[in-house]
Design goal:
Blueprint (H helix, E strand, L loop, with lengths): L27 H17 L2 H7 L6 E3 L9 E8 L2 E15 L3 E4 L18 E2 L1 E7 L5 E7 H14 L20 E4 L2
Parallel strand pairs: 4-8
Antiparallel strand pairs: 1-2, 2-3, 3-6, 4-5, 6-7
Bound molecules: zinc ion.
Amino acid sequence: MLTMDDFVNEDDPILRQVAVEVPLPASNEDKQLLASLMEYVQNSQKPDIAALYGLRTGIGLAAPQVNVSKRMIAVHLKEKDQLYSYALFNPKLVSHSVEKAYLTSGEGCLSVNRPVSGYVPRYARITVAGTDLEGKPVQLRLKGIAAICFQHEIDHLNGIMFYDHINPEDPYAIPENSIAVER
Ligand code: ZN
């Protein structure tokens, strides 16, 4: 099982690389890694297990964060009683709204052990396509926190950190044409 010891540091160059596509059908090794990303995120939300192993709580994780530069992400979050739980190979942003959205609390990242303040502009609505652990194609239409989380994780596959999007002159400038999302 993955713990914080498996995470690379924020300044590790792997977080700035464009991760490679996972050849499909996925190998057992790739499936195991993707399953372990999901297991980490789920464990991190269980207070007893998180405390026992010192896991920082997160809602999403991408393979480069645990030192594997391959296109895999896991997202596990509840929003308004709906569960979004997806482990995907080669997730892709198929389309997005013109309208933007931002989390009023800003974003955090399991790879960043310091608070970073500012609004992160994201697309308000997105369609994501990918392949799940069983090899089935998945297409998702997302909004709200789920849309923001998927964009954050897919960014990791392209070497982008959430704070790259923050306006350096005015971190709390409201992004143009945007809606506020509360967490
Ligand atoms: Zn992150």
